Amino acid sequence: MSPHDLDALFEPLALGSLRLPNRLVMAPLTRNRVGEDGVPTSMVADYYAQRATAGLIIAEATQICPEGQGYGLTPGIHTPEQIAGWRKVTDAVHQRGGRIFLQLWHVGRVSNTLIQPRGKAPVAPSAIRAEARTWIAGEFLPTSQPVALDIDAIPAIVEAHAQGARNALAAGFDGVELHGANGYLIDQFLRDGSNQRTDAYGGSITNRVRFMCEVVDAVTRAVGSGKVGIRLSPVTPSNGAFDSDPVPLFYHAVESLNPFNLAYLHVIEGETRGDRNYNGAVDYAKLRRSFRGAYMANNGYTRELAAERISAGYADLVSFGRSFLANPDLAERFRQGLDLNLPENATFYGGDRRGYTDYPFAAGAAAPA
Ligand SMILES: Cc1cc2nc3c(=O)[nH]c(=O)nc-3n(C[C@H](O)[C@H](O)[C@H](O)COP(=O)(O)O)c2cc1C
Which residues of the chain carry a pLDDT beneath 50? Predict the structure, then answer.
């Protein structure tokens, strides 16, 4: 890596109406630390404010409606109390000079009756149980058998995404990211392992991409295309996600996003949190070239790889999950070439400030207020 490559990480970038001061994005990270009512607390505000020197923060996956929840103690964006809770977070980040999007989430079948309204079965494109576990009340439990969504019920879920986006803006977010990755509802519609519908939403690739496009259409109409990004994970097996032929599916999916002029496409390359080269059939450089907006790369990136890829024009932005989790001042550490704190897996999900707001800043880097 040449010093010139490193400079590329700190070149500003216009994203919609925002000006990002650097190319380092905090990836969305579920931390299961809000109240039972899905309301972010002042502890959540502190955590994000500590990370405000990121070029952009993408706040953790947040359910757009009660049925969209699959894990315990995750935040929502569908009640006035949740909007007010998030307002404290966005204010704290903005006061520190940062920028923050919210990741909008419907888990679909990756849920459990224990956490669904009135103990009902989770909804999904088809009645196929996910080979996955979700974190509920301190332990990982298998997912429940879902019911296939009635076609008449789909417009309300599309609209819930649009309302979630409006609510996010009302809470002070600078934009939203649609969670189309990791085997959740949008991804369940995309892939034939979870979508075996015989109506307009299943079967051909065009039909399987329909739900995603309807959501993108509704959300961009609600808040404006410059405030919307989407996250995809073409080959990840996370949460039981599977497709028999992901290459043509995801090239088509990305091309069908172009008419919406999204702010960015966020791609988890390979297996989420695992092998970056998992199922090497997808050519991410080609995927990136077929998308008209900014490309945000993710998964197992280091400072060196990010600098190389950005200066080579392969990506516009790189997001970091575990490195931002453990290093609130990641941007400054990268700039100075300092050592990184290591993330502590045991405190990823649930708990208190330990492993959340107590990761130390490097000596000499901007200290928390
Ligand atoms: C604790 C934890 C929680 C995560 N929660 C989310 C999430 O809410 N939404 C999402 O899209 N990805 C989530 N991910 C995946 C990360 O955003 C990211 O894709 C992954 O950690 C790989 O990037 P990294 O190698 O930089 O950590 C999570 C990862 C971790 C470690």
Answer: none
